[in-house]
Design brief:
CATH architecture: 3-Layer(aba) Sandwich
Strand order of the largest sheet: 2-9-1-10-11
Structural class: alpha/beta
Number of domains: 1
Radius of gyration: 18 Å
CATH topology: Rossmann fold
CATH class: Alpha Beta
CATH superfamily: P-loop containing nucleotide triphosphate hydrolases
Distance between the termini: 42 Å
Number of strands: 11
Helix content: 40-55%
Order of helices and strands: HHEHEEEEEHEEHEHEHHEHH
């Protein structure tokens, strides 16, 4: 069955109906380095009541996080492998990928749910997922969140680990991943860079980006220079 899924994903294309559903409504995508705070910004937007959080689907089993079991339809849409295969064959996924032998993806039905609620859909995906969405629709606004500086980013990252030794073990791979993500983002013309120094201000800025057409201003250019500086600092520290 895994071979069948891999074949389906390798040749996957969303149906025309799925593409039309995606194009029918503005979608705000958030990407960014780990520790940048994109989830906190998204939560701030959701509190306004004007946005709909896109729930990803997965074929893995629900897990317990901090003593609480994940909930279907809230943390993820938990699908059987057979259901995922049927949806892949029908082209119902906007994008999908195999991660640790499980199918993860975003279904067009989530865009429909946002439209029915009269809300703007928002989603957190990796940079490759952003490319997929942007290739399918011009009605997608991409926001890349970064910390205000290399030093602040390091502080935030270190807080995620219980010890300095644990951080030092994970840091080389995390550093290379962040460099790749920043380089990729800077190479794309469609990202609005968002500096998350003060959370309330970052949420306000995210609202401003979401509520306007996908045009770029002088502040976008200055933020791009800011991100280039962070990338330079990141490369300078091994």
């Amino acid at each position: 069955m895994q071979d069948d899924i891999k074949q389906l994903l390798q040749n996957y294309h969303p149906s025309q109906k799925t593409v039309e559903t995606l194009r029918s409504q503005k979608l705000i995508i958030f990407a960014g380095t780990a520790g940048a705070g994109k989830n906190a910004i998204m939560n701030g937007l959701l509190k306004t009541g004007a946005y709909h959080d896109i729930v990803t689907s997965t074929t893995r089993e629900p897990r317990e996080n901090n003593g609480v079991m994940e909930r279907d339809g809230i943390d993820y849409h938990f699908l059987s492998t057979d259901d995922a295969i049927a949806k892949l064959k029908a082209g119902e996924y906007i994008e999908a990928a195999l991660v640790h032998e499980c199918v993860y993806g975003v279904l067009a039905s989530e865009i429909e749910r946002a439209a029915a609620a009269g809300k703007t859909p928002i989603v957190d995906v990796d940079v490759q997922g952003v490319h997929t969405f942007k290739a399918l629709s011009d009605n997608v606004t991409a926001v890349f969140v970064v910390p205000p500086s290399y030093e602040v980013w390091m502080q935030r990252i270190k807080h995620r680990y219980e010890s300095e030794a644990e951080f030092n073990e994970a840091w080389p791979a995390r550093r290379l991943s962040a460099i790749k993500e920043l380089e990729d983002a800077l190479a794309r013309p469609y990202y609005h860079f968002l500096i998350n120094e003060d959370l309330d201000q970052a949420v306000h800025s995210a609202q401003g980006i979401a509520e306007h057409d996908d045009s770029f201003s002088q502040i976008d250019k200055s933020y791009r220079v800011w991100v280039e500086r962070i990338l330079h600092d990141l490369k300078s520290h091994s």
